[in-house]
Amino acid sequence: LDAPGARSIAGSSGEAISRFREDVEYIANNLANYPFLLGYAIFAVIAVAIMLEINTRITLTVYLPLLVVVILGNLAMRKIQKYREASRKAAGAVTDFIGEVFGAAQAIKVANAETRVVRRFEQLNDTRRRTADGTSASAAGSRSGRRAEWSGPSGSAAARPTRTSPAPSPPPPC
Fold this sequence. Notes:
- There is one protein chain.
- With 174 residues, this protein is mainly α.
- The protein is 70% helix and 6% strand.
- Strands 1-2 form a two-stranded antiparallel ribbon.
- Helix 1 runs antiparallel to helix 2 and helix 2 packs antiparallel against helix 4.
- The chain starts with 12 loop residues before the first helix and ends in a 13-residue tail after the last strand.
């Protein structure tokens, strides 16, 4: 267990799945864009040099506001990264919960806990939705104000928000 890859990943298994799924795509997209970024940078340097030769005052009038926008964008990116991290953790919690539910399906049925499981799943999903959308807790919790009853596998009713599309069929009995 002293090898570099022998340590377990910090966090839940759902968070790890979410991290592996999203980060690979993020890195691949960034690597694919580097050649374009280099080309654009070379083009911009040459264009600014030519513009400075023609008229320094107009060039500075154009590029100083642009420089301010770039700096503000970089500052905003830090905040966006914090939101992305929170969204990834919330999605990991949902994925982890789904894995736990599938692993303990029989125990949930024996304990007659379908209602509590569905309620907890809705709470986690609402948290994930709020972190992704930036909406308030009250808006995410009651979208339409109406509640519909869903009969679980054991016949117990659980409150679920109504949807505009048809409700999914209940899961099959274990």
